[in-house]
Automatic annotation (TrEMBL):
Protein name per its UniProtKB record: Carbamoyl phosphate synthase preATP-grasp domain-containing protein
Cell cycle is among the record's keywords: no
Molecular function terms from GO: ATP binding; carbamoyl-phosphate synthase (ammonia) activity; carbamoyl-phosphate synthase (glutamine-hydrolyzing) activity; metal ion binding
Keywords: ATP-binding, Ligase, Metal-binding, Nucleotide-binding, Pyrimidine biosynthesis
A Gene Ontology cellular-component term: cytoplasm
PANTHER family reported for this sequence: CARBAMOYL-PHOSPHATE SYNTHASE [AMMONIA], MITOCHONDRIAL (PTHR11405:SF53), CARBAMOYLTRANSFERASE FAMILY MEMBER (PTHR11405)
Domain Carbamoyl phosphate synthase preATP-grasp span(s) in chain numbering: 7-51
Pfam families: CPSase_L_D1
Organism: Candidatus Faecalibacterium faecipullorum
InterPro entries given in the database record: CPSase_preATP-grasp, PreATP-grasp_dom_sf
Catalytic activity of the protein: hydrogencarbonate + NH4(+) + 2 ATP = carbamoyl phosphate + 2 ADP + phosphate + 2 H(+)
UniProt keyword annotation of Nucleus present: no
GO BP terms: glutamine metabolic process; pyrimidine nucleotide biosynthetic process
Length: 69
């Protein structure tokens, strides 16, 4: 499929909550999709509904004194 030059940004939707032990595989596939799109010059936004991971990332960000979220 040829690249459509009108596409500048893509929303990649994660798999969401799943059973324990499989989250890493789905997170990996989402990040690989973002990498492939970035290599094509397309900006990506990865949306993942696993809120507990977002909270942990936020807390780690605050603890490291990295400034604004």
């Amino acid at each position: 499929m040829p690249k459509d030059p009108r596409i500048k940004k893509v929303l990649v939707i994660g798999s969401g909550p799943i059973i324990i032990g499989q989250a890493a595989e789905f997170d990996y596939s989402g990040t690989q999709a973002c990498r492939a799109l970035k290599a094509e010059g397309i900006e990506t936004v990865l949306l993942n509904s696993e809120i507990y991971k977002e909270v942990l990332l936020f807390l780690a960000h605050i603890q490291n004194g990295a400034g604004r979220w």
